Amino acid sequence: MTDTPVLSVRNLVVEIPTRHGLLRPVDDVSYDIEAGEILGVVGESGAGKSMTGNAVIGLLDPPARITSGEILLSGQPIHNLERSALRRLRGKKMGMIFQDPLTSLNPLLTIGDQLSETILEHLDISQTQARKRAIAALEEVGIPAASARINSYPHEFSGGMRQRVVIALALCAEPDLIIADEPTTALDVSVQAQIMALLKRLCRDRGVAVMLVTHDMGVIAEAADRVAVMYAGRLAELGAVREVLTNARHPYTAGLMASTPLASQGRKRLRQIPGAMPRLGALPTGCAFHPRCDHAQDQCRQEPGPTLDRCDGRAACWFPIGADTKEEAQA
Amino acid sequence: MSAIIKVEHLTRVFDVSKPWLNRVIERLPRALLTAVSDVSFEIEENSVYALVGESGSGKSTIGKIMVGLVAPSEGSVQVEDVDLATETDATKVEAVRANIQMIFQDPFASLNPRWRVRDVIAEPVAAKGGDTTGLAEKLLEQVGLSAADAGKYPHEFSGGQRQRICIARALASEPKIIVCDEPTSALDVSVQAQVLNLMSDLREELGLTYLFISHDLTVVQHMADRIGVLYLGRLVEEAPRDVLFDDPKHPYTQMLFAAAPKMDGFGREIDPPKGEIPDAINPPTGCAFHPRCPLAIERCSVERPEMRNLGATRVACHLAE
Amino acid sequence: MADTTPITAPSPAPPSRLRRAWESDLAWSFRHAPVAMASFFVVTLLILGAVLAPLIAPHDPFDPATLNLMNGFTPPGQANAFTGELFLLGTDDQGRDVFSTILYGMRISLFVGFSAVLLAMVLGVTLGLLAGYVGGWTETIIMRIADVQLTFPAILVAMLIFGIAKGITPPEYRNEMAIWVLILAIGLSDWVQFARVVRGATLVEKNKEYIQAARLIGRTPFSIMLRHILPNVLNPVLVIATISLALAIIAEATLSFLGVGAPPTKPSLGTLIRIGQEFMFSGEWWILLFPAATLLALALSINLLGDWLRDALNPRLR
């Protein structure tokens, strides 16, 4: 394995011009994903987590567009590619798994046709070979009797099986990067466990880099190696998953963790973050989180939130949790 | 404490057949979906009873039967000893109706977009010709919004605020019981905490009884006093919260608990559960869970287990002990 | 309760109704659609002309006493050879001022159009709501009637209704009743579209949770349809009503052109076109051209307005 990360996002900015002004659903976001690593991206709705994934894979809906920053796939810039070049890259180098498996499969084509079509588009092999590969791909994602079911249509599969097919589709051209956008949100708990186990296994066996976008902290805790917490389009915190979840440094992450009901808490009142995430058109001045933050000080209200570097690359906060003690110790 | 709601042998069958002509031409039999099958439980006054289950477990249908939106096929739901489905005395039915309200899952679909918040909240009282002066304003403050919001339209509010408005509407007729159908599953975590806290506060203040329907085990564990676990329309296990979470008896409950992602389950590797939920139109014979059950014996595929008491737990399994 | 602090900031004084309307999405989209603005201008001008006809029109074409047969066939913009009178758009065979007949004709066309659409709308929305909300046999019967009616061209249905209605009215009232029969015929031939769209929208709204909440409260089905569903299905109705208006005006013109509509003593645009086409080949083109151009401008701009409205109200296209 080389030192170049599979995906490297540098100071990414996505903007949407509207009649009410320019919106920034993704604002100065930077992160890397190594081969074989799962990066969890969490945040509440409107935090910009899906938009980041769509920007990487080149599926931004106009008028949204990347206005600055760069996206490197194995060191090669892909943010400025033509649509056609991106399309070739999608599938071959990058795969995508969506929330709703039904809408990401063509209802009029059999599973086998869709798989071999994708394989043929990216690999130079014969029709029969492609079909063999398709069956192998279905077997790998745990579809029983794959050779018999390859001629079935998407509606003949259950929700969990469909999501397996989508995963097979995303993996069949052996990409380096997979972007999974809420892959289990539409599924039941027991099926979710199956799908996540499958995703983890494939990532480990093949050394694929996975960007796992979800709002479920439990899923992140169990699956991700590192986690990026997003708030109002910016990265709030980035770090190893155990560190971030048990020892949050950004007040937002801490609030998020405290407001999740935990078995250990029993019936105690949940700690709550007051208010709701601001709309993109009406972001407060200063740090976007300050109106909901217990620790907010004048600096937070006046100056825009700092970058991650402020706190060892961990948290984008002027006064990260645990920093006082550290500074005192240094002094 | 006494039971405020008694559910006895509740069954609901939906006819999901194709139209008559299609059936004749395609020679299809009638398709009957048993959404709820012989479910019995009681809810005590001023407690939180939670129904958990995955999709197709019938938990929402039970909630709808309870408030009278859906009629039972067999069995009964008695609210304060009145059976809404069969009671003929209109005044009694009215009284019970006013006493049981519902909060829905999707805060974006549960408020009429063309109505002002004031009218939405006061509707349960206005529909009965009651006096609504200042009612909406009072309720808005009670659920943590401001009285000035009464003149706004629903689209001016966020999801969490809308759910507060729904709660305010549910409280308008001063009910004793509120059926909460996945009240927070459409909300973000930080907002979910606000709404759950609000619901707990209101329960204490107003002495409410909740039937809490959810698929989220952490939320159920946080809110419920007593929990019923449903699988394919059948109640498989029922117990006080701590008993259930400390010592789940039914293999399905055990599987569900194991499969749920844990916030502290870093790098946890589990053996994921086998199979998927079967089709409710043709459920398995005997115990509905037997094809996925690691313990299943031959008897399980033949004989449907009865509910039996096992300590503080009621469980429908031949093998649980 | 720990959580009593209002979540919403105290809002500033609400802007005036006019200001809100000006800033609404619909007004914004209108201001950015030149075609819609031009259409709106034309429609307004024509409707104003029709409404104010008694004040604007130089002559009253319905008053035979003011007519002078000597003025017949005066070309537009030229003085009459015998009387020396000047007519902006010329005169017809009976010496009626074409400009005035157009203004008065439009009154009739628009009156018939608006009334027919109103009838179709009331009928279609009611039946559509019933079909969508009640379902079952009610729905089957209503929608099958609609399907059957759709298989015939609307104009044929209108002619059929017109024929039947004419047959049962006593002859002495026929001329007076003609306008009302027209409205009935066009209205009855046009309700299907409304019913179909409203039924579809009702099916969507019916399953939303706010309807369940209203049922739970104990609202009657009638009250739910009227107070909850109706306001939420009106957007598409508005669009169809606009486009139907253009179609109804054309239908009226067609019927009148075919001689089964407005009588020659009270001519609508269609009647004027029919009268005009008799003189087209004898050189008196203006008798046909001006009413026809007016009809075209009216129908086209209403249609364009309807198109814009459909796009502007469609949330998917935003």
TrEMBL record, chain A:
<dbReference type="GO" id="GO:0016887">
    <property type="term" value="F:ATP hydrolysis activity"/>
</dbReference>
<protein>
    <submittedName>
        <fullName>ABC transporter ATP-binding protein</fullName>
    </submittedName>
</protein>
<dbReference type="InterPro" id="IPR050388">
    <property type="entry name" value="ABC_Ni/Peptide_Import"/>
</dbReference>
<dbReference type="InterPro" id="IPR017871">
    <property type="entry name" value="ABC_transporter-like_CS"/>
</dbReference>
<comment type="similarity">
    <text>Belongs to the ABC transporter superfamily.</text>
</comment>
<dbReference type="GO" id="GO:0015833">
    <property type="term" value="P:peptide transport"/>
</dbReference>
<keyword id="KW-0067">ATP-binding</keyword>
<dbReference type="GO" id="GO:0005524">
    <property type="term" value="F:ATP binding"/>
</dbReference>
<dbReference type="GO" id="GO:0055085">
    <property type="term" value="P:transmembrane transport"/>
</dbReference>
<dbReference type="GO" id="GO:0005886">
    <property type="term" value="C:plasma membrane"/>
</dbReference>
<dbReference type="InterPro" id="IPR003593">
    <property type="entry name" value="AAA+_ATPase"/>
</dbReference>
<dbReference type="InterPro" id="IPR027417">
    <property type="entry name" value="P-loop_NTPase"/>
</dbReference>
<keyword id="KW-0472">Membrane</keyword>
<dbReference type="InterPro" id="IPR003439">
    <property type="entry name" value="ABC_transporter-like_ATP-bd"/>
</dbReference>
<keyword id="KW-0547">Nucleotide-binding</keyword>
TrEMBL record, chain B:
<keyword id="KW-0547">Nucleotide-binding</keyword>
<dbReference type="InterPro" id="IPR003439">
    <property type="entry name" value="ABC_transporter-like_ATP-bd"/>
</dbReference>
<feature type="domain" description="ABC transporter">
    <location>
        <begin position="11"/>
        <end position="257"/>
    </location>
</feature>
<protein>
    <submittedName>
        <fullName>ATP-binding cassette domain-containing protein</fullName>
    </submittedName>
</protein>
<dbReference type="InterPro" id="IPR013563">
    <property type="entry name" value="Oligopep_ABC_C"/>
</dbReference>
<dbReference type="InterPro" id="IPR050319">
    <property type="entry name" value="ABC_transp_ATP-bind"/>
</dbReference>
<dbReference type="InterPro" id="IPR017871">
    <property type="entry name" value="ABC_transporter-like_CS"/>
</dbReference>
<dbReference type="GO" id="GO:0015833">
    <property type="term" value="P:peptide transport"/>
</dbReference>
<keyword id="KW-0813">Transport</keyword>
<dbReference type="Pfam" id="PF00005">
    <property type="entry name" value="ABC_tran"/>
</dbReference>
<dbReference type="GO" id="GO:0055085">
    <property type="term" value="P:transmembrane transport"/>
</dbReference>
<dbReference type="Pfam" id="PF08352">
    <property type="entry name" value="oligo_HPY"/>
</dbReference>
<dbReference type="InterPro" id="IPR003593">
    <property type="entry name" value="AAA+_ATPase"/>
</dbReference>
<keyword id="KW-0067">ATP-binding</keyword>
<dbReference type="GO" id="GO:0005524">
    <property type="term" value="F:ATP binding"/>
</dbReference>
UniProtKB/TrEMBL annotation, chain C:
<keyword id="KW-0813">Transport</keyword>
<feature type="transmembrane region" description="Helical">
    <location>
        <begin position="35"/>
        <end position="57"/>
    </location>
</feature>
<keyword id="KW-0472">Membrane</keyword>
<dbReference type="InterPro" id="IPR035906">
    <property type="entry name" value="MetI-like_sf"/>
</dbReference>
<dbReference type="Pfam" id="PF12911">
    <property type="entry name" value="OppC_N"/>
</dbReference>
<feature type="domain" description="ABC transmembrane type-1">
    <location>
        <begin position="106"/>
        <end position="306"/>
    </location>
</feature>
<protein>
    <submittedName>
        <fullName>ABC transporter permease</fullName>
    </submittedName>
</protein>
<dbReference type="InterPro" id="IPR000515">
    <property type="entry name" value="MetI-like"/>
</dbReference>
<dbReference type="GO" id="GO:0005886">
    <property type="term" value="C:plasma membrane"/>
</dbReference>
<keyword id="KW-0812">Transmembrane</keyword>
<feature type="transmembrane region" description="Helical">
    <location>
        <begin position="233"/>
        <end position="258"/>
    </location>
</feature>
<feature type="transmembrane region" description="Helical">
    <location>
        <begin position="177"/>
        <end position="198"/>
    </location>
</feature>
<feature type="transmembrane region" description="Helical">
    <location>
        <begin position="108"/>
        <end position="133"/>
    </location>
</feature>
<dbReference type="GO" id="GO:0055085">
    <property type="term" value="P:transmembrane transport"/>
</dbReference>
<dbReference type="InterPro" id="IPR025966">
    <property type="entry name" value="OppC_N"/>
</dbReference>
